[in-house]
Specification:
Structural class: alpha+beta
Order of helices and strands: HEEEHHHEEHE
Low-confidence stretches: none
Strand content: 15-25%
Radius of gyration: 25 Å
Mean pLDDT: 85
Strand order of the largest sheet: 3-2-1-6
Shape: elongated
Largest sheet: 4 strands, mixed
Number of strands: 6
Amino acid sequence: CYKFAKDGTLLRLPEPGSVMKFKNHMNKLKRPFSIYADLECLVVKRNDRNRTAIHKPIAACFYLVCEYDHTKNYLWHYVGKDCVLQMVKEMNRVAHECIKEMKHNEEMVMTQQDKIDFQNATQCHICQGYFADENHAESKWDIDHFKVPDHDHRTGCYRGAAHMKCNLDYYHQRYVPVFFHNLKGYDAHMI
């Protein structure tokens, strides 16, 4: 804070009694696929006074993790001078397969107990807000806060009653996150 105040930036604190509210509920969903990756380098000495050694990538490895079916987990590794290129090509291929699978949408399956729970629900299971009265809807806010059933698009299982707007916003964005070991400090220089 001192740096910002010293540079002349005005700091504005929130009003007393104001409340911060979490809105990105889709970030609470567990990603169906994730990739964990790492590179290994060979340190090659040089005869340059300014640069005593150069790091050359020699091996690459990544592990695809599927959260709902561990038989789809996949370990890939490659040793060679073109390991970074080969890794990027393979990650791209795997990501396209995962995204294709994420586009599949199962129909909702509700048991009799799910139907009873839905009828009795008074709060959205996503945001914990109360539902609008469907018989007295007067505004867009009311329509967005109607009660609708929410389900897992991969399995078809009922998750709970939700606001219409929350239900539409509660989905997996179709990408596969990649986590590199020490990306910022080292591996990013190799890609």
